[in-house]
Amino acid sequence: MSRLKKGIGALFVASALLAGAFAYWAYDRYTAFAGTPLGGIEAGESLVVERGDSLPRVLSRLRALGVGAGMDVEWQLLARQLKAAGRIQVGEYALEPGVTTPRTLLEHMRDGKVLSYRFTLVEGWNMRELRAALAKARPLRQTIAEFDDAALMQALGRPGLHPEGRFLPETYVYTRQDSDLDVLRRANADLEKALDAAWKARAPDLPITSKEEALVLASIVEKETGIASERPQIAGVFARRLKLGMRLQTDPTVIYGMGSAYAGNIRKTDLLADTPYNTYTRDGLPPTPIAMAGKDALAAATRPAAGDALFFVAVGDGSGRHVFTRTLGEHEAAVRAYIQRYRAQYGPK
User: Fold this and answer.
1) Which DSSP state fits 230?
2) What structural domains and CATH numbers belong to the chain?
3) What's the maximum distance between 2 C-alpha atoms anywhere in the chain?
4) What pLDDT digit, counting tens, does each position of 233-285 carry?
């Protein structure tokens, strides 16, 4: 073999070795890039992908956060491998120090695994309390501050309906793109489903004739209940009173009717002051719910416990329990016992 042929052969072998070494180095670097946690991430940071963002735009935003993001070509190759190129979804993505890698971030953006938040609508809240809580929820988009009740229900597709009690107390998960109206729309739809289910499963001898009345009664039960297990008993007292034509005489309805005039105490004059919600001066149920009723209160209102009690009063020991009695005399004795316990614990009332 001539020297020229030997030289060409040696050069070819050397080139192949160099190409193999470079390919191994590039693969090793690429593999390390894909699985190495991103540097420069602070606790609680997140990356927001907006509509129309391309991968280079996302990487630019990532670097603006101070995150060491590697070279664009590495991200582009990895995005192709993961089938994430052109499939990045809008949303907010968590960046976790020591955890988030280019691979996991691209997979999350491809699959839409966005950062979520929670808002809890509490049983017994009224509409004023619900609005105040929504106004503080972040990063929930605020859109309803200027809506009065009528405009709010119009926006929810429920025109002419009073908003009180129309939202189911639950914990709702939302993302940065969601608004307060989105949360209320879901809570209203959930309430309607829960109310339908409770009404379909109602007892046959109820003294109420519609789902609307069931919702009003459930809201009163919710406000009167100190412990969850007593809801059916309390509903039973009110159901028997309605059957007998007795007034409900429940303080929470009086308080609701007082509105902003309520200062933490009900006086005798308040019990005598007639409003549409004063169940001491008016027969039957008030015109609307007085609070947000949960599923258990809806179930109690439509399937109240059997019994003969027509009265109840708090035990007064701080437990939230009530004493249930059949006659006015028994009730008055229970009230006196309550006052004695209260004074012993808190002083004169």
Assistant:
1) G
2) 33-115 (3.30.1490), 117-195 (no CATH), 204-346 (no CATH)
3) 125
4) 999 999 999 999 999 999 999 999 999 899 888 999 999 999 999 999 999 99
